[in-house]
Every structure is written in C-alpha cells, then in structure tokens.
Amino acid sequence: MNRREEPNYLPADAPNILIILLDDVGFGQAEAFGGEIHAPTIKRLWEEGIAYNTFHTTSICSPTRAALLTGRNHQRVHSGTITERALDWDGYLGVIPETTATLPAVLREYGYKTAAFGKWHNTPATETTKMGPFDRWPTGYGFDYFYGFLAGETSQYEPRLFENTTAIEPPHEFPDGSPYHLSEDMANQAITWLRQRQAYTPDKPFFLYWAPGAAHGPHHIFSELADEYDGQFDDGWDALRARTFENQKALDWLPLAADAVDTPRPEGMTAWADITDEDEQEFQIRLMELYAAFVEDVDTQAGKIVKELDEEGIRNNTLIFYIWGDNGASAEGQNGSISELLAQNQIPNTVDEQLQALSDQFGTEEDSSGLSALGTAKTDNMYNAAWAWAGDAPFRYTKLIASHFGGTRNPLVISWPDGIDHDYAPRSQFHHVNDIAPTIYDILDITPPEEFYGFIQEPLDGTSMTYTFDDPTTPGQKQIQYFENNGSRGIYFDGWYACTFGPLIPWDLNSGVDLENWDSRDDVWELYDLTTDFMQQNDLADQKPEILEMMKQLFLEEAEANKVFPIGGGLWTRINPEDRVETPYTSWTFDTSTTRMPEFTAPGLGRESNTVTIDVELKGNDNGVIYALGGSGGGLTFFMEDGKLKYEYNMMLLDRYKAETEEAIAVGSHEIQVETTFTSLEPLAPANVVIRVDGTEVASTTVERTVPGAFSASETFDVGTDLGSPVSLDYADNAPFPFTGKINTVKVGLEDSTLHFLPLFSPSFD
Q1: How far, in Å, CA of 348 to CA of 432, rounded?
Q2: What span, in angstroms and rounded, lies between the C-alpha atoms of 308 and 328?
Q3: Residues in CB range of 124: below 8 A, 6 or more apart
Q4: What span, in angstroms and rounded, lies between the C-alpha atoms of 286 and 225?
Q5: Fewer C-beta neighbours within 10 Å, C or N terminus of the chain?
Q6: H/E element, 702
Q7: Cβ(362)–Cβ(401) below 8 Å
Q8: How much is the pTM?
C-alpha cells in the first residue's frame, strides 16, 4: 500500500535556524567590537559571516523578546513593559495575542522542529505556577520543547528551572563532577536536543532559540574564571571606555572620522578618579572582573552549540543570528551591589555598608574582606552602573533608555556559510529586532499568514534584511521605527532621529522627574541626522525646528497605530503600586506539596502584616525548614534546628534579623503561629515578629528595615523545604534542609495586601 506523501512547503535545503540572544551586554564589550571581554564565538561567526553596527533593540527585556519572536513592534504585541508590570492597557497587557502569531508557531506548521532554551520573560508573572495556564508558556507559543526559567533572572547555581511545564531542580554538579552552572547547562541541554532531532527526525529542519540568562544579574561565575581578568580593569571605567572607543575606531567598527571624540559620561555618574578608598576600588574592580568572566563563559557555551553543528555536519546550512544583547548594558547595579534588588526596592544603603556586610558575613582568615563571596551563590552581585556605561561605548546612557543608543543599539552577527559570503565590512543600515522574523520568512519564501488558527493576523512591522547580505553599502530599506520604554522614546525616519530622554535615570533611581507630576508633553526633544552623526552628538533641534516638529508628530502617529498610549504606561505601577499584577487572594492553606510557588503569586510575608498558623507534629529534636520565601540575596525563613524554632529575615544581605526559642519544642502535635505586624504604612517600615506555640509566646524580634517590594525575581515560597538558594546561612550547607517532622497545614492570612508595597524601580527582572 502506498503511503500518502507528506507535503513540503519549504524550499529545497531550507536552512536550520539558530538564534543566540544574550542578556544585558553592551555595544562595546566584546573584543570583536573593540571591547576587552574575550568572546571567541561571536568573533568566529563574524569571520564566517557578516556583522551589523546599526541594529536595535527596545532597551528592555520582555519587549525585545516579544518583538523578536513576532516580527512586530513590542506594544503592538501587548508587551510594552516587563511581565511583572503588566497593566490593563492593550499595549501593556504582557500577553502576546493570538493575532500576532510567533515565528516558531508558524515555522512549526511548515515542518520545523522548534525548541527554546534559557530565559523566558513573556509569561504573565501570576501565570507561572504549577496551575498555568500553560498556553502562555513557551510550549504554548510554538515551541515543541522548552528548558529554562520563567523570569527576568535567576541564580546561575540554583536556577528555578522548568522542562516544558514541569518544575525541576538542577543538580549540584555535572556528571563529570564539575560544579553546576546554568550557562553550561543550557548549552548541554541544547546539544542533547540537537542530537535527538538528528536521531529521530534528521529530515526536518530546526529552529533553536538559545537565550541564556547571562549576563543579566546576578553576575554569578566561578572565581578562577574571573581571576583571568586580574589587572585588566584596575584603572577604572573611564580608562576602559577610552580604550574601547579608540579600539572601535581602529577596527573600523564605527563609521567615524579618525579625530572623532567620545560622548561624555552622564551627569550624576561617578568618575573613577573620585573613588579614592582602596577597599572600594577593589570591590568595584572585582565586580567588573566577575562580569567579564560571566560574559566570556556564556559566549564560550554558545560556541559548544556551534561546534555540535560542525560535528553533525550541518553547520554550513544553519542560519545563525547572534544578537549581542536584548538591550544595552545594565546600570541597575547602581553603585555596585552585593544584592542587586537593594536598588530596585529603593533601600537606602552605601557601599561602605555593603562592604561591612560582606566582611561580617563572609570574611575569613584568608580573606577578611569577604570579597571572595562575590560571584558565588552566597551573593547576588552586580557591577557599578559606570562599568555598564563604559561597555556601551561609544553611545550615551544604558539599558532602559529607549531614546539613545546606549540602551538600544546592539551588535548583530549573521552567519550562514551556504547562503551568505563572509565580509568584514560592517552593515550600517538602520535595523531593529523586529526585522529578524521577516528576514527568516523571506529566506524561506514564506508569506506571513493573514489568518492563523482562526485569528486574523496583524501585519508585520519588521523589514527583511536579506538585501544587505551581499552589499554592505546598499541603502537601507527600513523607513521608520519608533522606540518607547517608560516614557523614554524616539523615532527614526529616513535617516533622521528625534528623541527625548524621559523621566527615569537608571543609574540613580532616587533622582529624576517626579513621576506623579510628570507630563510627557513637557519633555524636551532632540534631533539628529544619523547619516552624519552615528553617536547622537550634534543636536539639531534648534537649527531644524520644522523637521523636529514633523518627527514628533510622526511619533504620535506611530504611537497611536501601535497601542503605545498612554505614553510611559510602563511607569504606572511605580506611581500606583496597588495596581501591580497580583493574585486576588488574601488567605491560603498550604501543605508540603506547596513548593516552587513564585514570589509574585505567593503571600507577601515580608512586606505586609500577616499571620502564619502551622499545624505540626514533632518527633523531638526536629530539624528543617517549615516554610521559606526568597533566597540567599534576600528572604525570610522559619525553621527548626535541634528542636528549637528559628526565624530569620534576610534583609537583602545588609541585615539578618533573627528570633529563636530558648528551649526545644516538645514531641507531639502543636499549633505554631508566626505573627508579623508592621508598625506603620510607610515603605521600609519596621515589623514586629512574634512566635507562639499553642498560644504561648516563645520568641520575638523586630525587623528594623523591611523589603517593600520583592526579595527576588525567581525564588519561591516553599513549605517543608527551602528550594533554590537558601535564605539563611545557618543551614546553607544542608540546603534544602527538609523538615523532619510532619506538617499538616500552613495557613496564611494577610491583613491588607496593599499597605506596604513599594514599586520596584527599574526592576532587575528586565
């Protein structure tokens, strides 16, 4: 009997497709582009392909990824801000709509095998529990397989992983005995999937989306790798920026005159010469060494995937897009941080306080400073904003700024030996991340569907880049592109660029415009002729007022067409924190089946008054965690050690507030209560914690400073264990420290879920 022939709608020898997307890396950081961080893989791919120096992102995470995967503008696909800040305005819902089918969903219909690895930040924060709904997870957006995490960031040593829709725990080491690290795991898992595809469906092309968490904070990497950069950055960020700029000119990476000068350091950002304390200098230098090693390592891991393609004999017909960053380098580390969400929670602190906390908690005889804890699972370190500025050379500003290219311009390398001849000449045509999908459709001769599974599709916004493959100097074909993030905005049109900075200053989150009184109509705009001004240095607003007014009007038209209004919609929860995305519950009943409950869906035990009531049966001298929320960078935990009850509030590593019973709790059934009462409605307000056993007070403490927003981006609430990174150093060596008694129920009741929440400024979840 003859079998029905499977139809084929793809051209002969349709290429495999690999997209590599790094996180929070800057235009001028890789050696290939004039920087001082070793990145051999992107260098190799440029040597086998072509590179673009005028390619753009949206300046922030979730929006860039949504635009990449759909070929449309970020607000058109309802992704105008990160998922944790989603709102009930069309452009900011945080849910990619059915009317804008994703690239993998379409390719799968044409026979492609599809997989995603790494960071996925396009699912609503309240929909990442074990209850889904799963249609908004990667497997609901066209991917046959997913291995990664659903958040803006996670620990590189204890990541909160999912395989498809199942929560899994990472090993502490790899099979060869080497210590676990997420970037390497992502490479290993991608290689395994490639081999399985080769074994099971070798006739089917693949679409592989590899988006590791690096180099988003926390900057976790092994010390021996960071040590390889010893001495590289000892003269500080100003000197690094200067060297990078000269290297970029020497490489002809920038279309600049030989006598061109760099853009200045932003106002309010510390000069290296002003850091005179040797201890702080060592701290700042070490943070940069760790970051550099983190970036080098993830690029090396990407190289393993490329090597696998070589070994399978399919490299030449694999189309690789290596996007060096989903936005510019990040200033969210502020003045340098041991726990990056300190700034995002607006918790006042100084570098001296952080250095003291490092020394007190992690100092040893060999290292009294505790600096050796940086880069390990014990801290959530992130480098100084000025290092990010240096890494965004030659442009002004950093991630989160959509108006200027330090936030939006990222190098792109495309390599496809069977389809693109190598050429070192940089492509300088103006392009955007929404152009990737149209380029792939063009190569495959696929007409984007007008209707997909019953939903009429919105048009693509991107422009195919294939016309640039053979000619680096051909005129650009992308006529228009708007930018907007948190009120920072710009518009490109036919070589002109108009922009306005907006109300937020990422490297100084306590300054900037009063958001409640900010009016976007009062913002001052700038105008640049990009045909002669690659770096936005010569503001022509005063000389060309008629062009500026035309550009401003054009922005408003694009904003209307793309659901951008209200301008600055992503700012709303900073002004009105009570409108944050949250679950509707104020009471819960848990048991030991409750684990991996994301913090954004869990009770706000650390930020609002609450009572936790535990029905427990003790065996005597019990040990283990009864419940925990958060991780090593910040959280709270209630546990037992040798029969004694212990409570700890880890205030972002700066302080650890503790309570402990004097005696062990007797064998048998008990009702234990932990009552937390905030002393005022102000953010950071103290909280009194009282522990009772069978109605009798047995211990108490006062948390002098509380965390008003979130302890982490991806750590969870767990009952009977502390999965992920451990909240307390007291049991860190025994984590996850499972409870040895029996927990029947853990009941939680909140007094008011809106009183003590502070908006998470410039969240590290981006």
Answers
A1: 37
A2: 29
A3: 83, 86, 94, 95, 136, 581
A4: 12
A5: N
A6: strand 696-703
A7: no
A8: 0.97
